[in-house]
Amino acid sequence: MSAARLVFSGVACARGGRMLFADMDFVLEAGAAAVLSGPNGIGKSSLLRLAAGLLAPTAGQIARAGGIALADEAIALDARLPLAAALGFWARLDGGGARLAAAMDALGLTALAPVPVRMLSTGQRKRATLARVVASGAGLWLLDEPANGLDGDGLVRLERIIADHRAAGGVVVAASHQALGITDPQAIILGGAGR
Ligand SMILES: Nc1ncnc2c1ncn2[C@@H]1O[C@H](COP(=O)(O)OP(=O)(O)OP(=O)(O)O)[C@@H](O)[C@H]1O
């Protein structure tokens, strides 16, 4: 994995004619993590989409390095396929076929390999989404509510994959209403005027 990096310089984001935030500045170097917090509708998912390059900033610049993996509520796996095959499709595209078994193991999904994606429970789907991120080999992980639906074991696994990713030089940005057990996160708190 090449060194990951994410820099926001004077970034503003307007959606639906409303300014969500402006003058957003932060630097996340390899090994860093940021947690986005703030009330519903304040702009956390929008910030992640900006970071992913899926949304253009209204003002300012965004610099990124290391490849991007975005995990949000959309599972983005073929519902008809067995889990291992569905994840394998993405892993091959990402050049991460060799990482897939370890990624599934890290999320406790190995025994579910033959189960069709459509039969997975909410928490199992979230684990699958996270396994796709791990297998991608991307340096920059953008996680939207990664703890949603996870049980205690899932939360421990999430904490571990984030710590391991940072130790390997990755960068993590997570939007969450729950504590994620991230060590020394940079806090990005959205809120204030305009709601
Ligand atoms: N495609 C869009 N067009 C116009 N407005 C949008 C669009 N997508 C989101 N918004 C608006 O942008 C605002 C921020 O949404 P966003 O999803 O970023 O919030 P959030 O902080 O992630 O919320 P939550 O905590 O509920 O997940 C909301 O008011 C939302 O309605």
Using brief descriptors, characterize the structure shown.
alpha/beta; three-stranded antiparallel β-sheet; 5 helices; 195 residues
- Helix/strand class: alpha/beta
Radius of gyration: 16 Å
- Quote the average pLDDT: 93
* Beta-strand percent range: 25-35%
Tally of alpha and pi helices: 5
- From the spread of the alpha carbons, the general shape counts as globular
Approximate helicity band: 25-40%
Bound molecules: adenosine-5'-triphosphate
Q: Report how far apart the termini are.
A: 39 Å
Strand numbers in spatial order across the main sheet: 5-6-7-3-8
* Helix-strand sequence: EEEHEEHHHEHEE
How many extended strands? 8
Largest sheet descriptor: 5 strands, parallel
Which spans have pLDDT < 50 for at least 5 consecutive residues? none
Explain what the structure shows.
By secondary structure, the protein is α/β, with parallel strands linked by helices. Helices cover 30% and strands 27% of the residues. It has helices spanning 44-52, 83-93, 100-106, 122-136, 152-167; strands spanning 5-15, 18-28, 33-37, 59-65, 68-71, 140-144, 171-175, 186-189. Strands 5-6-7-3-8 form a five-stranded parallel beta sheet, with helices on both faces. It is globular. It binds adenosine-5'-triphosphate (ATP). Adenosine-5'-triphosphate binds next to helix 1. The site of adenosine-5'-triphosphate has 12 residues, from helix 1.
